[in-house]
Amino acid sequence: MLIDQIYMITLVGAGLIIVSAISSLLASRLGAPLLLLLLCIGLLAGEDGMGILFDNGGAAYFIGSLALAVILFDSGFGTSINSFKLAAMPALTLATLGVLLTTGLVALAAHWLFGLDAIESLLMGAIVSSTDAAAVFFLLRVGGVTMRDRVRSTLEVESGSNDPMAIFLTLTLTSLAAMPDMASGSMATALLIGFIRQMGLGLIGGFVGGMLILTIVNRLTLERGLYPIIVLACAIFLFSLVGAIGGSGFLAVYVAGLYAGNRHVRAKATLVRFQEGTTWLAQMIMFLVLGLLATPSQFPAIALPAIAIALFLIFVARPIAVWLCLLPQSFSGRETAFVAWVGLRGAVSILLAILPVIGGVHNGMLFFNTTFIVVLTSLLLQGWTVNPLARWLGLVLPPKIGPIEKVELELPGTANHELLAYRVVPDSPVTRGSRLPRWARPSLVIRDGKSMRYQYAGRLQPGDYVYLFISPRLPPLLDRLFASPAIVSQDDAEFFGEFSIEPDKTMGDLDAIYAVGIEEKTASLSIVDYMTDRLGGHAEAGDRMAVGPIELIVRDCDEAGRIAAVGLSCAPETPRVVKLKTDVMHRLFRQFARFSATRDGEKS
């Protein structure tokens, strides 16, 4: 009998995972958040569906915690240090202050809708205060949304780093809710001490753990297949050890992954592939278990107030928190609105909602069922609209041509190279005779289905596939050689400006044509220096700023990050009459630019 049960449990579990894996195809084609499909599969297989009874909250929290530790380690491991630095300030502000603000605002709504006391209301807010890394990563990366690196990195780093704060608040408030007689002074002291201990030990443990993981992997000579197992075991060991001594194990594994992933580590390509598969498996197991734990027949009793909390979170709490956190940052109103909208709630919130149930909090199932409805509402309302909203707000960058395939290689010794495959497009520089640099000699050219060595291929032709071994830091230099010329379509013109202006001309030259109202002290600055200063010292393609009746837009940056091309267009807020005037001025400015170039040539 026991053997038959083992077979049946294994059969059902493997079947659910297969269905979940296949559902990723449906999610990518329909644009639906994968988490929503996985939760629905769990609900359909559960007590009110196929009849699988699973009501062990402790086991669900244990499985979910281990799965979340694996996901967070991989999130840190896959985050480049450049992306982290680019988005560190806004993302970490959202992950700390943003979580606190969201908790407090949702607590007000929970108190009014459910009549909960102060601690229980804050507990409800803390449970739903964090965004879901899996949903955000899937929608931004797999969904093909191309936008400014800083906006994308802010969303990804925030979703990967705000879980420790939400978990700390939920654990602490659950303990306080189970002890309602604690004095307010003792409560504040407990919160402060707990925060310092958990975050401090989490950060220290993460850095030390990341260094130990690097040391173990780089110094031990093992079979290649054992390195991923060692790294995964070390991550789980670190999570458990830091948690056992009172720190945040979730923060520790994220920091350890961030540290180890941005250092030279042996068999990195193997580690990345293994962790990608392990993370998918962890996500599927966590989502399915949480779906099985829910009982949809209990939802109608609290559906209306739970949906009201979800709508308050989406349209009030999250936007206010994001606006306050990003106010000192150089984000436009449209970018702030997009960051506020892409605050999907997911598996972490449902996992945290188990704590009041197993912690003996009064009406514990109210927290769990309400959170489940909030997550479903968030995924249904926000998950389907991320891509259309980005396009509506004008945040989607025109796609850039780069390698069609990239394979990280670890060659014997210490060589660290990537294998890139480019498809040669018509009118690209390489088809017009531009020579490839010595460090980028192709190893193989495929033309009309036939492979040949680069030396015998002659000039590269449109349609050729070119394979190169190259250092990971050099591909951006090659993208320009294989890319087609910048043909400004209507969409690109709207994003990058109607025409290009010379970035090295002064703001005084610009003011003479457009009367933008430049101060004397800035008139001698070049357009590049003026824009770089106004953008906080860092520019990206797509950055734009209003200057009087026009907008200056960064069209491109060079390898050093310096503005290389600037576009000009009317500001969206400019009246139609001003736009008609500037259409005439465009031609005058072109003539002025040609005259200046001729004059400079004569002087030289």
Automatic annotation (TrEMBL):
Topology within the bilayer: Multi-pass membrane protein
GO molecular function: antiporter activity
Keywords: Antiport, Cell membrane, Ion transport, Membrane, Transmembrane, Transmembrane helix, Transport
Location within or outside the cell: Cell membrane
Primary location group: membrane
Any Gene Ontology biological process: proton transmembrane transport
Top-level taxon: Bacteria
Recorded GO CC terms: plasma membrane
Keyword Kinase: no
Cation/H+ exchanger transmembrane domain span: 18-392
Transmembrane segments: 6-27, 34-54, 60-79, 91-115, 121-140, 199-217, 229-256, 277-296, 302-326, 338-358, 364-381
Protein name in the entry: K(+)/H(+) antiporter NhaP2
Lineage: Bacteria, Pseudomonadati, Pseudomonadota, Alphaproteobacteria, Hyphomicrobiales
